[in-house]
Amino acid sequence: AMEYRYGRSFSNPSEIMIKSSDACGCTVKSDEVSERLSEMRSKQCLTLSEVSALTGISEKRLSALEESGGQMTMTELKKLCTFYRCSSDYLLFGKKEGGIAYGKFAQ
């Protein structure tokens, strides 16, 4: 599994990428992020096309994130966490606050 840390994108320095492990030693495992993204979408019976239309993230990009994790930008992270009503800690690390993983998409 690929691991990430926060860093600057070389192609677009204004974008912050999530790669490797960060300075605090927190490790993001791409296969687990992919699994959580896929699970949240599936629980709501949403297609990639529907999520794409509602988040502004291309269907191809969403598919790549769900299949391999890929390098997620901070913008994508924010959009997905807002859309799925989950914390970035949950999406990236699987951490649950008070035993709750994420909002209405957990039902």
Explained architecture:
- The structure is a single chain.
- The protein has 107 residues and is an alpha+beta fold.
- The protein contains five helices and three strands; from the N terminus they run βββααααα.
- The protein has a three-stranded antiparallel sheet with strand order 2-1-3.
- α1 crosses α3 (59-68) and α2 (48-55) crosses α3.
What's the mean pLDDT score?
75
Total strands: the figure is: 3
Succession of helices and strands? EEEHHHHH
Strands of the widest sheet, in order across it, are: 2-1-3
Structural class: alpha+beta
**Strand fraction:** 5-15%
Shape: globular
The value of Rg in angstroms is 13 Å
Distance between the termini: 28 Å
The major sheet is characterized as: 3 strands, antiparallel
Low-confidence stretches: 1-10, 20-25
- The oligomerization state is single chain
Number of helices: 5
Q: Helicity level, as a percent range?
A: 40-55%
List keywords for this structure.
107 residues, alpha+beta, 3-stranded antiparallel sheet, 3 strands, 12% strand, globular
SSE diagram, text form:
Elements: E1 3-8, E2 16-20, E3 28-29, H1 30-43, H2 48-55, H3 59-68, H4 74-84, H5 88-93
Antiparallel strand pairs: 1-2, 1-3
Brief synopsis:
By secondary structure, the chain is α+β, with helices and mostly antiparallel strands. The protein contains 5 helices and 3 strands, in the order E-E-E-H-H-H-H-H. It is globular.
